[in-house]
Amino acid sequence: MKSMGLEKYRNKRNFSHTSEPRPVKPKKPRPGLAYVVQKHAASRLHYDLRLEEGGVLRSLAVPKEPPVREGVKRLAVQVEDHPYEYKDFEGTIPEGEYGAGKVEIWDRGEYVLVEKTPGKWVVDIKGGRLRGRFALIQLKAKDKTRRDNVNWLFFKLKKGA
Ligand code: MN
After folding, report:
1. Distance between CA 40 and CA 63 in Å, rounded?
2. Distance, CA 112 to ligand 1 centroid (Å)?
């Protein structure tokens, strides 16, 4: 998935009202990439999957509990990149602010990128709840000329896949 940059993240928030991290410079690349899922009780409960890439956190909103076992496919909607520091964020985003509601860390750890093509990521996740090999597959846009579909499928792969 392409970087969406941190501008959208910045523009949606008022950092004098929310305790979410202010965007700073993206982190330098290094081994052991951050993985986190934040359970976010916004107007609709969802799970924010975040994978460090290019010094920021690629972010996807998963409307249902992430797939802890094989055979469960979840929609994951790409949203704006979040700053690296967001991986540690827990707290309550105040009423009236973007994403108002409680954020808690549902799972965290590291991941290794196994395969990356424009519409497919395969990752080995070493978290507490999610462990093993997972795929993110970009859904095709209805309009075939568009390549910017934000909808992905997120699922666990069989062992040895
Ligand atoms: Mn969210």
Report:
1. 10
2. 23
pLDDT on residue 5: 78
Would the pLDDT of 2 be above 80? no
Distance 161 CA to ligand 1 centre (A): 30
Average of pLDDT values for 113-129? 94
> Which residues are CB-neighbours of 7 under 8 A, at least 6 positions away?
none
The pTM score is 0.84
Q: pLDDT tens for residues 62-102?
A: 999 999 999 999 999 999 999 999 999 999 999 999 999 99
Ligand 1 mean position, distance from CA 143 (Å)? 27
Long-range CB contact pairs, 112-117, < 8 A, 24+:
112/33, 113/33, 113/53
Report how far ligand 1's centroid is from the alpha carbon of 7 (Å). 17
| CA atoms within a 13 Å half-sphere pointing along the CA-CB vector of 135 | 17
